[in-house]
Structure formats: structure tokens, C-alpha cells
Amino acid sequence: DTAVSQTPKYLVTQMGNDKSIKCEQNLGHDTMYWYKQDSKKFLKIMFSYNNKELIINETVPNRFSPKSPDKAHLNLHINSLELGDSAVYFCASSQGLAPGELFFGEGSRLTVL
Amino acid sequence: KNEVEQSPQNLTAQEGEFITINCSYSVGISALHWLQQHPGGGIVSLFMLSSGKKKHGRLIATINIQEKHSSLHITASHPRDSAVYICAVPRSYNTDKLIFGTGTRLQVFP
Question: What residues in chain B have their Cβ under 8 A from chain A's Cβ atoms?
């Protein structure tokens, strides 16, 4: 039973399209995150949500819009995709605000052509 | 200069060797995380520690808060330990905002 699951795992799309990545956790955690890993494998936080409330928005373009319908789900919608958006996006969850142990999804590899 | 520096960037070892990966940081922190990223891309949390030492199987993590330094040791290394090891610290106290090192790529050969 996967603790943090992301879909889709792979996404290939054209520039200018809009796409979404979904994330769900069944750990009962109250905090969820989106991280971006670039081509150099460098991880960087994008957003964090605690109990459906946005806590961190790390200078991410407005084209990225996270949505948390409940504390078990955090989805990422990206408008007008650009080449530079190609990366692996990781969802993660933890209990509490100052992060405890992080549990990561398997990652969603987005390729923008 | 990165706020979180790891060394070495790449490490190769023979099976059975003792491995040490180092992490230095420049911010004040409440806790430090060690993560493992498998060749397939998945990320697993290995340790979160705020003082002293933690051990899990063949993995040992230590931290010196005064010196702002942490080490990850692997005893009796095995090819399945081959992965990228990443350390991460909060940007400041009591924040979610983790900043990550660039990772240490470890390859263990049989």
C-alpha cells in the first residue's frame, strides 16, 4: 500500500499546454509539499500546505497553481508549459509544520517539447 | 556558495568498505535530514537528527551543531547501497523550507 502516490509518473507534452500532477498520501499527515528536481538533480521546494492551507510559496511562477482539496491530497496544475518546466516533480508529506520525517512519492517526470 | 555543501560529490568503493559522506551547512537549524535517492529516482528519508548520533542497520548519522557539520557513515558497504545521498536542512528554525545539498553519488562495486 503506497504511502505517497503521484500520478502520472511520466508526462510528455508540448510547450503551451496545461497539465496536472496529482498526489495523495494515506499516512494521516497534515503537511504536504511539492519539490522540483532539475536536470542537475538539485532539489528545491516549491510549495507546502498544512491542513489545506498554503504555507510556503517559494517564488514559483504564477503558472504553477497547487490545490489541496483536503489534507490527504495536493495537486499541482501547470499552465502554459515552458521548456524550462521539464523536471522531476516530487510530492512529499510529513507530520507537523517544521518538517519531521519526510515521505516522498515516486516522482513525476515532466518533459516539455 | 551553497548554504549546504556536501563532499565528496562522487564516491566509488569496493564492497565491504567503510563509507563517509560529509555535509556542512551555514544556517542555524533545528534538525538535519539525510535522504537516499535510488538509481530509479525514488527518494527515501534515512535520518532526521538534531544532535548526537543515530544508527539504523549499517547506516550511522552524526551531527555536530556547533561546527554545523554532519556525517553519514555506511559500514560494510554493499552494491545495493549505490545511490545518491542528499543532506537537507531547514532554512531557519521552525520552518518547512528545506534547502538541499547537491548530493553525493555513491557507487559500490562487488
Answer: 30-31, 33, 35, 37, 41-45, 48, 84, 86, 88, 90, 93-98, 100, 102-103
